Amino acid sequence: MPGPHRRGTTSRARLPNVVGMQPSIEVTAVSKRYRAVVAVDRLSFAVRPGEVTGFVGPNGAGKSTTMRVIVGLDTPDEGQALVNGVPYRSLRRPLTQVGVLLDASAVHPGRSARDHLLWLAHSNRLGRRRVDEVLELAGLAAAARRRAGGFSLGMRQRLGIAAALLGDPAVLVLDEPVNGLDPEGIVWIRGLLRSLAAEGRVVLVSSHLMSELEDTADHLLVVGRGRLLADVGVAELIERASRDQVHVRTEDRTAAMTVLANAGATVAALGADLLAVDGLPAARVSSALTGAGVPFSELQRHRASLEEAYMDLTRDETEFAAKGAGA
Ligand SMILES: Nc1ncnc2c1ncn2[C@@H]1O[C@H](COP(=O)(O)OP(=O)(O)OP(=O)(O)O)[C@@H](O)[C@H]1O
Question: Which residues belong to any copy of the ABC transporter domain (predicted)?
């Protein structure tokens, strides 16, 4: 069984690898084209330490391409990406500075999980003890000697995360780490990401699961068609999307709709006895209904979910949406 993440990822008290400066990722005016496709379009952002930053956007928005540029696997046509102030390719012993999970299947299928990590550790002059630590941390200790080729998707993800943590890096770039994890694994990765950030690390994590990020991320970078749509705190984005919508429960829906429309609100029915009211603060909704003698049992300001906030933001940017979806 996977072990819980109990006490951070390192026995060291402070981050050892970025002396005299904060760890960072800085992307400046990066563009990347593949023939006719503009995958990334003059994208600029900086990722702050001490927070989990979610990297989100519709399919094909350019997230993986951007992450590949950050870790030197793709060369941008324009612009630059710096990690801890330098291009990734000029880092010495990169595993000790940047932990990367991009493609969890990129493991020699005939090698055991432990041998895979030993090989990586050796290439970066890291000790064997750390290999056993990260196997334990990722819940793979019991499977350490099994061939990685026989691993499930979730186990491969765990192995990829173990590899990313091997060098105790101050910067983490994780593409869809939740992919394939079971519910226990999802809880585990959530705790792991939060504690990595709490230790002052830079944690950039792409995901399609807004519900996951709502519980995990502090900040969001939203991209669409290669461009930056938002660079915003999760709380602020939800607050913005919540607008001033008020939900009212009433037995007399028709009368309530008439009264509120006459008071200047836009009203939509959400259910037999539930209304969504836009354009009127809660106090005015209450006084209008009370004044007209329309009974109601509940009245509360609606808090948008991160999913709703995200859908608002990306509605026009979805390149591969199913025809008719959301219409
Ligand atoms: N090696 C490549 N060759 C050609 N086109 C590519 C290549 N890699 C990415 N693209 C294209 O670039 C665009 C951005 O792709 P990318 O994989 O970066 O998006 P993404 O946001 O990670 O998508 P998803 O959420 O589906 O993983 C897409 O149109 C994709 O088809």
Answer: 25-250
